[in-house]
Structures are given as C-alpha cells and as structure tokens.
Amino acid sequence: MGVDFLHRQRGIAHRDLSLGVMWFILLTGSPLVSVASRQNKAFVALEECGVAAVFESWKFTDRLSTAIVQLISQMLT
What we know:
Strand content: under 5%
Number of helices: 5
Protein name: Protein kinase domain-containing protein
C-alpha cells in the first residue's frame, strides 16, 4: 500500500516516495527498513545518511549506476 493512500493525500511527492521504495526493493531484493519509525535504528540512519549510504554499505554501488542511485535518492527525499 502506498504512503499516499495511507495518509489519504494525493500528490506527486507521495507517488515518487512509493515508487522509490518499490525500485529499492526491486534492485536490492530487500525492503529499505522493516519499520518506518524513529525507534528503528535503521530508519534513523536512513534519515541521517540517506539512501545512497545504504546502497554503499550494502555494497550495491558497484552494481548500480550513479544516475540510478541519485534518482532513487531524490525519490526518497
């Protein structure tokens, strides 16, 4: 279920966020975080460092182009 649906909001930014999450899962085979909560250390690290740091720490930067990493980073911010 998309973030825009959960929050009952419409707009490009929410669709971009949902699509960015889907692309991340398709490219890595794993969800970005298990729970989007500030009590989740992975979520806090994502907020502080960004998704590009996640790709780097998961050793995906050599498999993905810089353009893809930048696109998904922009979709998730």
